[in-house]
């Protein structure tokens, strides 16, 4: 049992029925709160739960089993912003039994079992953080660009910095949804590129899907030090020649095939006015192109870490 559990009332608002209501749209289940408040447009059904697990397992393969990138010897408190299906948060809690891990998500979904040192709470990260200052050794924010409002990012970074202990770290991982081709064979007319364009268009003015390649600048602007970043190609299928990357490609293929449909259903119809039939057809073509190794298609994944200065006086 962890020594310093989070009290249920600490740091967030209590679970409100507004987070529990859901609606079926175009054959998928969506959270009313997320749709009404334009928080994020992904479904919240079993199919999406499975995709989140597939994505977590894929990322574990990509990162060779590493969950925490900064050099943190014995973390005592960790915050996971947008825990999804709690794959990362559960693994971190299991590997660090003397650390309290707090996961926040707008969706009240919880796994059947959670480690005793993992605390999952419902809240909207677009609201200002109410956690105590200087209280976490690590804050992770992974795949959150479609859930954080464009005009929230500056304060989101400041909030994360504030709640970190002096010397604590933030790690952010973001996928850039504009699909690329390693041999330049994908044109703007290809369905995969049209899917990307429409996905970005459907979030325009509300979400900043260009955040992934500005992570380093955002960390520095917020006041983080020792900032490091890198880009990793996530192939849409197994087109790379070495064994490791081929395995990643095969795992990514399953995720991409599901993602192309899941993420398009609501924004392409409700925001861009496409018919469900048109969306289905576009997704079908995009899936076929994603499976074609000849295009050498990939989604860029950006990883960035940064440390809060050790001197309290600076922040
Ligand atoms: C793409 S999933 C990523 C899940 C997890 N971070 C991972 O990488 O496995 C995004 C998650 O963030 C949640 N989310 C999106 N916007 C949010 C917000 N404004 N506040 C809280 N949770 C949010 C969604 O409900 C979803 O579970």
UniProtKB/TrEMBL annotation:
Top-level lineage group: Eukaryota
InterPro entries: SAM-dependent_MTases_sf
Organism from which the protein derives: Hymenoscyphus albidus
Designated name of the protein: S-adenosyl-L-methionine-dependent methyltransferase
CDD domains, per the entry: AdoMet_MTases
Gene3D superfamilies, sorted: Vaccinia Virus protein VP39
Pfam families named among the record's database cross-references: Methyltransf_23
Molecular function GO labels: methyltransferase activity
């Amino acid at each position: 049992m962890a020594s310093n559990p989070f009290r249920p009332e600490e740091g967030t608002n209590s679970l409100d029925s507004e987070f529990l209501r859901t609606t079926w749209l175009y054959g998928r289940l969506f959270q009313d709160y997320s749709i009404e408040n334009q928080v994020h447009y992904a479904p919240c059904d079993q199919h999406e739960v499975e995709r989140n697990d597939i994505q977590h397992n894929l990322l574990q393969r990509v990162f060779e089993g590493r969950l925490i990138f900064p050099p943190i010897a014995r973390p005592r408190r960790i915050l996971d912003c947008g825990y999804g299906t709690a794959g990362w948060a559960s693994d971190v809690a299991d590997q660090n039994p003397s650390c309290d891990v707090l996961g926040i998500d707008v969706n009240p979904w919880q796994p059947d079992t959670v480690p005793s040192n993992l605390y999952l709470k419902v809240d909207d990260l677009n609201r200002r953080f109410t956690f105590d200052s200087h209280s976490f050794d690590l804050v992770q924010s992974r795949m959150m660009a479609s859930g954080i409002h464009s005009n929230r990012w500056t304060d989101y970074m400041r909030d994360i910095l504030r709640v970190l202990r002096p010397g604590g770290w933030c790690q952010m991982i973001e996928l850039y949804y504009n699909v690329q081709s390693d041999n330049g064979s994908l044109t703007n007319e290809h369905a995969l590129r049209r899917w990307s364009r429409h996905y970005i268009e459907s979030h325009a003015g509300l979400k900043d899907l260009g955040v992934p390649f500005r992570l380093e600048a955002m960390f520095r602007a917020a006041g983080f030090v020792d900032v490091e970043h890198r880009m990793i190609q996530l192939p849409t299928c197994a087109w790379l020649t070495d064994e490791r990357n081929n395995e990643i490609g095969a795992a990514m293929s399953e995720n991409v095939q599901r993602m192309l449909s899941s993420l398009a259903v609501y924004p392409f119809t409700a925001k861009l006015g496409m018919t469900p039939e048109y969306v289905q057809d576009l997704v079908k073509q995009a899936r076929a192109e994603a499976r074609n190794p000849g295009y050498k298609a990939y989604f860029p994944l950006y990883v960035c870490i940064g440390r809060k200065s050790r001197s309290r006086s600076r922040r």
